Amino acid sequence: MLKRLEHAGKKNHFDIVQSHERIAGCDIFRAGDGVHRRWLLQRQKILPRWKGRWLFYDRYHRYVMNAEQQMYADPALKQVICNSQMVKKEIIADFGLSADKISVIYNAIDHNVFVPATNSQKTALKNTV
């Protein structure tokens, strides 16, 4: 994948290379999944002890953590977009990125469609169950 990205970049002139995947060489990264190592630490808490330890030896998870490390260390990376302050803080702590390189843009919710149920609606729903 990275080879194809490099080839496309040499063949064409792009103003911005934006990615949702952990790929070194992108200008903008959308960190929608958070920091993989932090996710593994949370996952480890709910697994049996031996499985939790194994997560960090698994080849796939090592690959993802390595890809993250390479991407965040790449000088081409200009901006990271997160959907929470928690993820922003984790990226700063784990990869040493400066806070000014990270923007938080919260996922949007259509408040006209997703309206919390009223007490009467909750009661009516409970009565149908």
UniProtKB/TrEMBL annotation:
Domain of life per record: Bacteria
Keywords: Transferase
GO molecular function: glycosyltransferase activity
Ranges where the Glycosyltransferase subfamily 4-like N-terminal domain occurs: 4-112
InterPro entries, A to Z: Glyco_trans_4-like_N
The name this protein goes by in its record: Lipopolysaccharide core biosynthesis glycosyl transferase
